[in-house]
Amino acid sequence: MPDTQETLDALLAKLVEETIEPAEVEQLESLLNGDPDAQRRYLHYLSLHRDLEQKGAEIQTSPSSTPRPRISPVLLGIAAAVVTLLVSAALLYFDAEPEIAQITGIDGAVRWIDHRGRIISDLEPLDMLTGGTLEGLNADTWAEIKFLDGTLISVSGHSALTISELEGQKILQLREGQFSIDAAKQPPGLPMKLITASAEAEVLGTQFNVTADSMSTRVIVNEGLVRVKRLADGKVQEVAADQHVIAALELDTEFRATSRKDYTHAWRSNLPRDMRRGLWIPAPQNKGGVLRALPHLWKGQEKSEETSALLFTAVIDPSPGDLPPVRLTEGARLRLSGRSQANDTINFGFATHIERGGFAGKYSAWRDIEIGPSGDRSFEIELPLESFSPTQDRFPDTPVHHEIAYLWVLTAKQAASLEIVKVELIPAK
Amino acid sequence: MNEDALSPPPIMDPTSDFVRLWTRHQAEVERYVYMMIPRAADAADVLQDVSVLLWEKWDHYDQSRPFVPWAIRFAWLEVLKWRQRQAREKLVFSDGLLEQINAAHADEEPFMEARRNALTSCLTRLTDQQRKWVDLRYGRHGAIKDEARRSGISMHKLYYALEKVRGQLLDCVGRTMRREGWSHA
Fold first, then answer.
1. Pairing of strands A403-411, A344-353
2. Of residues B35, B101, B146, nearest to A47 (C-beta)
3. CB-based contact B38 A9, cutoff 8 Å
4. Nearest CA in chain A to B134
5. Residue A15, Cβ neighbours under 10 Å: how many?
6. How far apart are CA A170 and CA A187, in angstroms?
7. What one-character-per-residue DSSP string does A337-382 give?
8. Measured distance CA(B109)–CA(B17) in Å, rounded
9. pTM exceeds cut of 0.90
């Protein structure tokens, strides 16, 4: 039946373009199942697609079968006017906001606000995106966006990243949080632009990681070259591979591209310096202090039955500023010392980058904590790296040899009033 | 003295035999894997595994028999292994359907070469506009996206036009095959 074949062809087109949705795969499966004719169409269609891909260069260079007639300049002028009118009409008729990227991976609570201001909380891999803002709502959130030219961005943790494309130029605006980018070569004269509260950067094609908040921006370049401008004074630094730079709003801070330091394999948090999220509560007489987990509302997924929940999270950056990156080694253990008002179940985890590279994965473990009998409400847990599981199947099984991007501690129990005293990475002896 | 008498007897080099056959037929095996796993990146990964497996099994290959069916038998095993790893994935076909497609492929394989030849002829019959769509999609990586940006026409519309051209090419290939006496087409 022609209608069935049209449906089949439409699904096959989505299949070969890899834009097919799970429900459409089910529909395709039901059309193919037990139908030899549909199966032949499937094989012919995919074979055709593959052959066209292999013939790509030939198609481009082989002459058209239709001889091109000579056209007078007058006719050309009329044709150009007609084409202009048609293109204008097409622009009005078709959706004027083009799709510029696709979600290729997602984990945790993520919200997308599209160019019309619509809020979408049920993004799924393969969803196409126009311009808009992606918000990571939790410390263990992660999303991967692929631009149509192959440029890949991994956003992790509490983040707000706006993506857009203006006349072929990509613009990324990071309000807060962090992302890792593997940028494809950009068209000549149209460098990708990165904007934060404290810096602007231009990128032609490279791999780098960015962390930003309202006061400062850190750019770590792993491949290529990134030109970073500090907005406070307009000064520019070129950041090469294996270098980093910090552009802060305070002008008394250093703004200079410097080589990244060698890895350290043992690390102990220094709070509040390493605090990225939480409330710092100093102790009397400056004898230490604690980082209290801060609440934030997690609204759950739109299509799931999970209800909204208040989560309490503290996030720590092991290598703020120009401190050396921290690398995980075989046999290492993480120790968390804290205080809690009640016995609780916490989620302890970390995000990683590959060695001198971009985002690698997220790993976490749930543990019950029992406060000590001493009355100071303290607890301590020590976990070998093997206790931490990747939060998605696609992440590597083990984080060994990765750099720690940040660590988080999270609870859903408000009464616990979770506080972090210190976190340590203890390498194997 | 005869110089040949001093030369060592010719030794069959299994590596070069394998490389020669693999190079010649890789595209056919790749096409088969792609039909079973229509996601380019996954298909490429599985193809890598197939090539390793074929090399491991090379000692058992009877060189008097055709290479492609032998290779596809092992490719099918790798497809099944991949399918097991994707048990929870929603974007792959069920085991039952994969079995059916594999069987259908065995029936279709003998006609694939003729279909490819027919396609070459059909491509020359496209109109300029149709050729442009095909060229944008397959001629240069990313060109169709550039066109979408340049013209302001959404990617959906461009891909729809391309879908129609693919349908016409398939019809043309079928007609050409029938005209050439392939009753199967």
1. antiparallel
2. B35
3. no
4. A59
5. 20
6. 10
7. EEE-SS-EEEEEEEEEE-TTSSEEEEEEEEEEE---TTSS-EEEEE
8. 24
9. no
Chain B's closest residue to A129, CA to CA, is B155
Give the pLDDT confidence score for residue B183 in this predicted structure: 66
**B60 burial via Cβ count (<10 Å: 0-12, 13-18, 19+):** exposed
Q: Is the peptide bond before A295 cis (omega within 30 degrees of 0)?
A: no
Residue in chain A lying closest to B109 (CA)? A43
Coil, helix or strand for A152?
Answer: strand
Q: Which of A40, A115, A149 is the best residue to mutate to test the B interface, defined by the most B CB atoms within 10 Å of its own CB?
A: A40
pLDDT of residue B14: 59
Neighbours of A118 (CB within 10 A): 9
Residue A39 structure tokens: 């199966």
Tokens of B59: 């000692």
**Pairing of β A207-212 and β A199-203:** unpaired
The CA–CA distances, whole Å, from A413 to A140, A271, A368, A426 equal 17, 23, 12, 28
Please give the Cα distance from B92 to B97 (Å, whole number). 10
A316-364 pLDDT, tens digit per residue, is 999 988 889 999 999 999 999 998 888 888 999 999 999 888 899 999 9
pLDDT at site A109: 84
Q: Distance between CA atoms of B152 and A75, rounded to whole angstroms?
A: 25
Contacts of A17 in chain B (CB under 8 A): 159
For residues A63 and A47, is the Cβ–Cβ distance under 8 A? no
**Nearest residue in A to B94, CA atom:** A29
pLDDT digits (tens, 9 = 90+) for B136-156: 888 776 777 777 777 777 777
Q: Could you tell me where the beta strands, DSSP code E, fall in chain B?
A: none
Cβ-based contacts of B37 with chain A (< 8 Å): none
Minimal Cβ distance to A65: which of B40, B125, B157 = B125
From residue A356, give the alpha-carbon distance in Å to each of A150, A243, A274, A325, A352.
Answer: 21, 10, 21, 9, 11
- Give the residue among A355, A326, A333, A352 at the shortest CA–CA distance from A429: A333
The residue type found at A388 is: F
A162: helix, strand or coil = strand
The residue behind tokens 């006719």 is A75
**Read out DSSP for A392-423?**
STTS-S--TTPEEEEEEEEES-GGG--EEEEE
Q: B152 touching A, CB under 8 A?
A: yes
The first and second tokens of residue A86, run together, are: 């048609």
Return d(Cα A340, Cα A370) in angstroms, integer.
9
Helix, coil or strand: residue B81:
helix
Q: What is the token pair recorded at A320?
A: 């703020």
According to DSSP, the residues that pair with B141 across neighbouring strands are none
- Count Cβ atoms below 10 Å from residue A20 Cβ, excluding itself: 20
pLDDT band at A309 (very low <50, low <70, confident <90, very high): low
A272 vs A205: which has the higher pLDDT? A272
State whether A60 and B135 contact (CB < 8 Å).
yes
Angle CA B76–B78–B83, to nearest 5: 95
CB contact under 8 A, A98 and B159: no
